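User: Predict the complex.
Assistant: Input components as received:
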Amino acid sequence: MSSIDPRQELADRLGLAEVPPARFENVAEVIEKLRQNDYLSDEAIASVTFLADRLAKPVLVEGPAGTGKTALAKAVADAVGARLIRLQCYEGLDESKALYEWNYRKQLLRIQAGRSESSTEDWSALEEDIFAEEFLLTRPLLEAISATEPVVLLIDEIDRVELETEALLLEILSEYQVSIPELGTVKAKQIPMVFLTSNNTRELSEALKRRCLYLYVGYPDVERERDIIISRVPGISTALAEQIARVVRSLRNLDLKKAPSVSETLDWARTLVLLGREEIGEADAVATLHILLKYQTDLEKATKELVGRGKALA
Amino acid sequence: MRNLLGEFIVELRAAGLPVSMSEHVDAARALTAIDISDREMVKACLAATLVKNGDHMPVFSTAFDVYFSNRHASGADLGEMDEESSNADETKGDDPNATGMRGSGRSRGMGGGGGSSMSAEELAEMLFKAMQSNDLNSMRSGAREAVDRYAGMEPGRPVGGTYYLYRTLRNLDLDSLMDRLIAAGTKADADGLEERLVKDEAKAKVEALKAAIEAEIRERLVDDRGAEALGKSVRKPLPEDIDVMHANRDEMAQLERALKPLSRKLATRLARRRRKRRRGPIDLRSTVRRSLSTGGVPIDLRFKPPHPAKPEIVVIADISGSVASFARFTLHMVHAISSQFSKVRSFVFVDGLDEVTHLFEESDDPAEAVARINSEADVIAFDGHSDYGRALLVFHEKYASTINKRTAVLILGDARNNYHQAHAEVLADLKFRARNVYWLNPEPTSYWNSGDSVIREYAPYCDKVVECRSLRQLEAFVGDLA
């Protein structure tokens, strides 16, 4: 297979003087670097991160809430020593909040100032003047593109914006550039790593998905969850972490409205450590279950399923 | 490799995954960036570039196992095979007491030898130990051994993998294996919680073993029949394409799982659409306030939120045997988006009719309410065979006065009337009173009006008669309704 290096190709298109070096040598290095930043990845997460860097493509991370999608972007930024630029999406997000906005107050001032100075000033010169970069308010997307130092761009909860707003992102995601009608095209000065996260509350457009690598981050298995607990909760014993991970797995197997997330598991682990527990008895579990489960019906169900039988025996 | 990738993508598309041309290119490029002798890496790489929906992963995994099976003659996998067979040679020279070698790390090759030197007890013992210590490699070779022994696979025999799986599992006696795992894991002073944890763990391990056996059988079938033929026979529909009327138990579970997120997404989409559809009158206060920052010039007009009229929905569902699951799904979905309607009333019938709206009002989870319908609704008046005519008569007599020009009536069922009278004139009157009457039929269009199906008599009085066999069709219809 003829090997065109995607990074090389993109660098040529952006007109960069040299191809920025790849951030990771191999998948093992990704795993290791993320681990140093307290993020325990698995094979899939590390491979996709590695590919994203090699292919210079954005990553769309999907999965249930609280499984470390946002944390992944942060950890990657830390691991490669890049600045994290974050765009939090919400309904009603538009161009002026995501890309750029003309600072029209400042422009007005400039026009008024010009009027009092000399009335002979040429209008076209003034127009050119007020549509200069000086009057441009950069928003996260443009900022990520125009940054000269390495950046990681995190577009958080992309599923919250309307379908039409998604289109704003397409140019950035595929070409790493932003077109501003009055100014021309702003091209990236480096190759940023881009992560998009989605909680899957709606179907994203095909156009967006096609431009991204896809990573589904589900709940971790018992072993990985135990390791996550150990690395994130100081002072916890391996035995307790293991038991916590097993309880959480059993809970996730129940048919609950909202299964406990990894971040809730960590909260629970911290609580148990604060309480000075070395192992979880039934009483502790019942007393602290509300940290893991946020619905009354879920709590009742879990209590009945997990410890109900013991009570019946007693 | 490139050919293999092409074939693989053809298979994915045939299974319903929307793989675009540019994704194909991405996948090919991604493969050049990685070490293709690492099978897991290849899988992660193809998954990232070709699959863009978490629900499609299982379909992808199955297809991947078929096309990139461990024994498939792609150059990439040969390395692994060599290593395996040399391992096996080594093993043969050793002490044949196979179970003793579990810990030695060389157990991988055991099953590769092919000879079933172990007795049934030894095999069970080995599986037990492998599962207890979570030793994946021994588990895999145990699975291989089990398939050798029990599946009785015959080359060229055109049966599906499930048949062999069933034969293997039947002989393995997984229940007693699970009991042993539970007994071995439970400490003497364990409380209820600990017991439960041990049980769940054993269950997870048994599931893993089943998956290993299934994978093993599939690999052998690929050897026997080739990837393309097997791909066709193990191809599973995506959850949203499963035929609701003919779903087996597994598929039913998939449908149940898919239903909740699907309804949630639909609700989000509709809520957004409703908010965006029309703007209310100008909000003068807010507009003036906004204009202050532009020197009193109202550049930004602000609008009050709109209050568009929401339709009322009346659902009348046949819940007799064959169409019961379809009715359940539809009721679930309609109620899950009930905030999009000003009112939802639900009726169920077989040959009697009963209102079930209160079940949905009492519980905030539609799934729960749907589960209660079977036990609590009083729908059988005579012999328990659907009687659409009678159900419509009863409905008309009791509730016709509540139907008005804002009401959409939804009738769910296959219109198989068991040769009772159709009473289509009742439907004609309902149509006159209501805004719309829709009929959702879970049967394929080609079956309509065959046998005792009398949909043709009702059709003239419906605004639309829709074939609705899968969640995808159902979602599209319900989405249009709101």
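Chain B has four domains: 2-67, 75-236, 256-277+309-481, 283-308.
Let me know if you want any component modeled separately.
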